[in-house]
Amino acid sequence: MNIHFEKRKSLSRTALVLVPLASLAASLVLTGIILILSGADPFATYRAMFRGAFGSFRAFTETLVKAIPLTLTGLGVSVAFRLKFWNIGAEGQLTVAGVAAAAIALFLSPFLPAWALLPAAVIAGALAGAVWAGIPALLKTGLKVDETLVTLMLNYVAILFSEYLYYGPWRDPKGYGFPGTAPFPEAAWLPRIAGRAHAGLWVALALALFLWLLLARTRWGFELSIIGNSPRAARYQGIAVERNIVLAVLLSGALSGLAGAFEVTGISHRLQQGLSIGYGYTAIIVAWMSQLNPLAIPFVALLMAALLVGGDQVQMAMGLPAAMGFVMQGMILFPMLAGSLFTEYRLKIARA
Is 43 exposed, middle or buried, given 0-12, 13-18 or 19+ CB atoms closer than 10 A? Predict the structure, then answer.
């Protein structure tokens, strides 16, 4: 008997649904084993996490607070991944966007009308994220430099640069020793809809729908799918591969940049420590679990946000480390990567 993998002629819709569900189930089982070895009841832990994320209106709004940047960075990462451009730099793009939005809110407020301050800060953040992503895109298309390492290292550049600013020249002298800039003018505050959840939620959902239409219903989206499947075939058809890669990665960076701009204008209202807490890395899990489908990304982002918020509740209610939420994220990623094999291949059993 001969068992081997056979490449599917088309993606299996059944596998696209079952693989993420199976990955989640496998992660729950694997995390449960870890909890048992730690001396904790898995079912009690999962109940505590659910209550921490959805057990009250306040808890739900806190989950939405984390779901917004995860949705935007997940959308950004998914665009690049469709082209096999491994953008690991969403964290840096988010951070540099927060710096750009803070610069507008802090230093241009005397020169701009109040109504223009918030849009200018958000646009500056999106542009900064796009420029930061454009650096590895140009290096990739022009010099064939590996984008994985470049995007990863640029994360540290952006994070350290932001720390230099709010610890140094931009630090608020009235901040009582806490690192951070002065508060933004209220004209640069993003409106809130419930608790700390802000209007960026509606923007993120609208962009998910827009991105799905762009990728699934336009010629440019069709060209991107061809490039992702075979750059050589795309060139034979007269598609400008390098130009489209740069444009798609710029869009990827702009989406992640919006996440950073919304964080400083909607949550902290200043540039301070806590802007870079791993949203850009978790976005990779969000993108893969959603199978790069923009319509699925908000739902997966909500799940990942629930794990983060529920992890804090586990620490208080169960005496376990809050990092248990991150453990579950990792446990989801590994089955997801392994299961993604079955979306493109199928097992075939043949008699010798």
Answer: exposed
What single DSSP character describes residue 176? T
Structural domain boundaries of the chain? 41-319
* Residue 4 β-bridge partners: 348
The per-residue pLDDT for 266 is 95
Report d(CA 322, CA 311) in Å as an integer: 5
Question: How does strand 197-198 pair with strand 192-194?
Answer: antiparallel
The pTM assigned to this predicted structure is: 0.90
Q: Do 203 and 193 form a contact (C-beta atoms < 8 A)?
A: no
Main-chain dihedrals φ then ψ at residue 83, nearest 5 degrees: -95, 10
Q: Indicate if the alpha-carbon torsion angle 117, 122, 126, 131 is positive or negative.
A: positive
CA distances for 277 relative to 65, 210, 272, 295, 345, angstroms: 13, 27, 12, 25, 35
Structure tokens at 176: 């009582």
Q: Which two tokens stand for residue 324?
A: 């248990």
**Residue 285: phi, psi to the nearest 5?**
-65, -45
Tell me what the pLDDT averaged over the chain comes to.
Answer: 88
Write out the two tokens for 12: 């299996």
Distance CA 246, CA 87 (A): 12
Phi then psi for residue 288, to 5 deg, are -70, -40
Q: How confident is the model at residue 11 (pLDDT cuts 50, 70, 90)?
A: low
Pick one of 2.50.20, 3.90.660, 2.30.30, 1.10.3470 as the CATH number of 41-319.
Answer: 1.10.3470
pLDDT digits (tens, 9 = 90+) for 266-300: 999 999 988 888 899 999 989 988 889 999 999 99
